[in-house]
Specification:
Layout: E1 4-5, E2 30-37, E3 41-49, H1 60-64, E4 67-69, E5 72-76, E6 82-85, H2 87-100, H3 108-121, E7 133-142, E8 154-164, E9 175-180, H4 197-212, E10 217-221, E11 229-232, E12 236-241, E13 244-248, H5 258-269, E14 274-277, H6 281-289, E15 293-300, E16 304-313, E17 316-319, H7 327-340, E18 351-353
Parallel strand pairs: 1-3, 9-10, 9-16, 13-14
Antiparallel strand pairs: 2-3, 2-8, 4-7, 5-6, 5-7, 6-18, 7-8, 10-11, 12-13, 12-15, 15-16, 16-17
Helix pairs in contact: 2-3
The structure holds pyridoxal-5'-phosphate and 2-OXO-4-methylpentanoic acid.
Pyridoxal-5'-phosphate binds next to helix 5 and strand 15.
């Protein structure tokens, strides 16, 4: 794919204090754009100065949410080189999301090339301080201007970059979570397995209610029986119960996380038994009562591993590992972040240099 590069003539000031970056607040100098037109396919791949996208009020995405996105990071290593973590997996997941939302797919190689090109142009925006990275947000949306309900004939694929610190202000500190019994995030047959904006809109009310009740995250139950654990906030979830790692099986309503996949590959390679299956909230509280719920953690690109220190459900509370991060959670965090920042040998060939 040929990518035309137009550099900005008015570069912005880069954040000076990288310890105050936060998540997704500052955008880098450039963006990647590519258009789709029915009959012509994807065309006009380009990197341009970061700027607002002009939009007609009748633009379809504003009304019917035909949109998909991805989230990944570019990591600066000690030698100054910049690397991505399993970008082909993001490309494939964007294809699966696109297929569900009737959006034309972008070839995996083109996606990876686009991300690498933008990150290379904005390489100076990849922060230096330990634990920071350039969060990369590819997204693709319907651009036809009309109000009829059918798939758009034109789309825009865009990638932006945001130098970021940790997603959660408290970093790796264990969080308390609340089992949500009213709202559900997604249902089988719907869009739960995709990364489409609508899923996140549907999750906000429960997130806000949990926050009001003093909880950091929501533990989602399945939409049919409201019994089985699905995800935690915008992360996949895993538990260590009686020496075994258990995690909800991918059932159509759960997002197939790349961190989830990587954790399971690591845990299996360490000889720890893993079960991907249905898990009830009841089962977890019984295990906690019996002292068998050893660890619990969320997995996702933004936070990598987010330990769970306490769970609340129907008036009951269960403390996990005395509210401390567990050994296995810590080992997963150290290994994954070690590979991402080039400090641990990448035996699985997960990282790719952008140059
Ligand atoms: N589940 C949801 C709903 C998410 O938004 C994310 C974040 O991307 C994840 C799980 C974790 O996926 P990944 O590990 O690919 O970042
Ligand atoms: C994650 O990377 O874990 C996320 O959930 C990203 C979020 C900002 C959508």
């Amino acid at each position: 794919m040929e990518i035309k590069i137009t550099k900005t003539t008015t570069p912005k000031e880069k954040p000076v204090d990288e310890s105050k970056l936060g998540f997704g607040q500052v955008m880098s100098d450039h963006m990647f754009l590519m258009n789709y037109t029915e009959g012509r396919g994807w065309h006009d791949a380009r990197v341009t100065p970061y700027a607002p996208l002009p939009m007609d009020p009748s633009c379809m995405v504003l009304h019917y949410a035909q949109e998909v996105f991805e989230g990944m990071k570019a990591y600066r290593w000690a030698d100054g080189s910049v690397h991505l973590f399993r970008p082909e997996e993001n490309a494939k997941r964007l294809q699966d999301s696109s297929d569900r939302l009737c959006i034309p797919q972008i070839p995996v190689d083109d996606f990876v090339q686009a991300v690498k090109t933008l990150v290379a142009v904005d390489k100076d925006w990849v922060p230096h301080q330990e634990g920071t990275s350039l969060y990369v947000r590819p997204f693709c949306f319907a651009t036809d201007n009309h109000l009829g309900v059918h798939a758009s004939k034109t789309y825009l694929f865009c990638i932006i970059g945001s130098p970021s610190g940790s997603y959660y202000p408290n970093g790796i500190d264990p969080v308390n979570i609340y089992v949500e019994s009213r709202d559900v995030r997604a249902v089988r047959g719907g869009t739960g397995f995709t990364k489409c904006g609508g899923n996140y809109a549907a999750s906000l009310r429960a997130g806000e209610a949990a926050a009001t009740a003093g909880y950091a995250q929501v533990l989602w139950l399945d939409g049919v029986e409201r019994k089985y654990i699905e995800e935690v906030g915008a992360m996949n979830v895993m538990f260590k119960v009686d020496g075994k790692v258990i995690t909800p099986a991918l059932n159509g309503s759960i997002l197939p996380g790349i961190t989830r996949k990587s954790c399971l590959e690591l845990v299996r390679s360490w000889g720890v038994p893993v079960e991907e299956r249905k898990i009830t909230a009841e089962e977890l509280f019984v295990a906690a009562d019996e002292g068998k719920l050893e660890e619990a953690w969320g997995t996702g690109t933004a936070a990598v591993i987010s330990p769970i220190g306490e769970m609340g459900w129907e008036g009951k509370k269960a403390a996990i590992n005395g509210g401390e991060i567990g050994q296995l959670s810590q080992k997963l965090y150290n290994t994954l972040t070690g590979i991402q920042w080039g400090k641990v040998e990448d035996v699985h060939h997960w990282v790719t240099n952008i140059d």
